[in-house]
Amino acid sequence: MATGRSPNLRLSISRSLANPDFARPVGAAIGMGMLGAERREEDAEARVTEETTLDLLRKAQAAQEQGDMRLHNEITTTLDGMLTGNTNQKSRDLITQGLTTVSGQRAATQKASQTSTAMSILKTEEALEAMNSSTAPMTNEEYMQRAKVQGALEDRLKLMKQNGAAAIEANEISFQTELKAATDSNALAEQQKAVAQRTLSSFTFGSPEYKAQAQAIKDQGFGQAVDQYETTQYALIESKENADKIRRSNAPLTAVEKKMLEDNDFAPTDDIRRDRNRLALITETLDKRTIMQANADTARVASAGILPVVETVLARQAKRGDLTLNFRDDLYNKIEKMSDEDKLRLADSLKRPSGEELTADQIEQEVIGFLKTEFPEQFKSMETRQENLQVEQEEIEILTADLMAQAAEKDPALQGIITRGKDGTVSGIENVPEAVYRKYRMEAEGRRGPITSFVRAISQENKSPEAQARREVAEQNVLSNMGRAF
Questions:
Q1: Contacts 24+ apart (CB under 8 A), 454-462
Q2: Which of 148, 153, 297, 484 has the smallest number of Cβ neighbours within 10 A?
Q3: How far apart are alpha carbons 23 and 468 in whole angstroms?
Q4: What is the predicted pLDDT for the residue at 298?
Q5: Would you put residue 221 in left (φ > 0), alpha (ψ -120 to 50) or beta?
Q6: Which residues make Cβ contacts (< 8 Å) with residue 429, sequence separation at least 6?
């Protein structure tokens, strides 16, 4: 039985490859296979990049809403890192689009961050004010603990206020909030005054029933409404008496009286009674209009925004003028002694005959000008104190920066953060953790002078009799024990 040889497969493939009609399609198929794998790998990489970029964009949106600049910067750094060395064009396009979007969100994130800092400033100030206004008795240990917390809050406040834009925004938010409260309060007061005066008008002016009702309204806290109503009634009574006097007179009309008739479209006649009656009616009518217009102007001043702004500015200036060692005769006390009528007269003086309405800023400047003129000594004392505080804070900031720069090489918490330039400028302070910053600031305050901490501890005391008594004792201690109080 004859045996056949198996075909040589290697030789057959070699011969087939040598055949051009066979080799070309096979090579193309192999090349397409390799290219397809490469494309699949690029597509997979692009999908991963897309998912990562979308996740970063979601975080960037959250950072914008929260005002988180730290997260925003981290996202930008991450996208930059993804772009570096990446040769996949699809991925690069996706990353570039992401960077463009995030870059476009930077301004909005900064604004949100600024507003967030501004709100933190206001909340910290509220917390400090609540501490300072508390009159609850405390043990020495509790007082020391409160002083420690207060110091931490004050240091945090100073750190936040280094952001000038945020400090300005906080001040504007505070002003607008106080202004709205004053506006709402005045609008309500005007409504209540109108109701009270309508009630009074239902009684015969001066009668026992009227007097009883007027006293009841005063007891409810609306004495100003009663005073204004009675002032109006007395003015109307005086006007009527004057008109009756003109009517009863038999004297010939004067040149002025004739002109008044003519100005109101009445030609003088030979009938003295007719002319006198007309003149009395004109006089009484004009008087009534003047009286009613004065009341309307007063209401307009209170409701149109002038009085609320005046009251808001006065309240803010009173805070600034609250001096520690001169609390009996400081600007705070002068403003506190201003009655509602004083404030209303001040607001009324800001009306313009032309009907021009002043802006809040213009009203503020007018009120400050009034305080400078009316209370020059107290206003100057306030300005001097503010200037001294500003100088003190600047000196403490410089000393704090210097202490941190000196310790930068030894303190791990400052390494890589604080640097000092050739010109001596210290940078990186804004990146120092709050607790670390507070430690060096407290040291700076201690070196600046122990009296600073003492004055800070009592400078915000309220005006209650108990607080004033404590401040009197504190004042005597400072003056008599200046060299050994600490």
A1: 454/478, 454/485, 454/486, 455/324, 456/151, 456/154, 457/147, 457/150, 458/324, 459/322, 459/324, 460/128, 460/129, 460/132, 460/322, 461/132, 461/324, 462/132, 462/133, 462/135
A2: 484
A3: 106
A4: 58
A5: left
A6: 162, 400, 401, 404, 418, 437
Structure tokens at 404: 């941190």
The identity of residue 256, as a single letter, is: V
Instruction: For residue range 110-143, list pLDDT tens digits in order.
Output: 888 888 888 888 888 888 888 877 778 878 788 7
pTM: 0.47
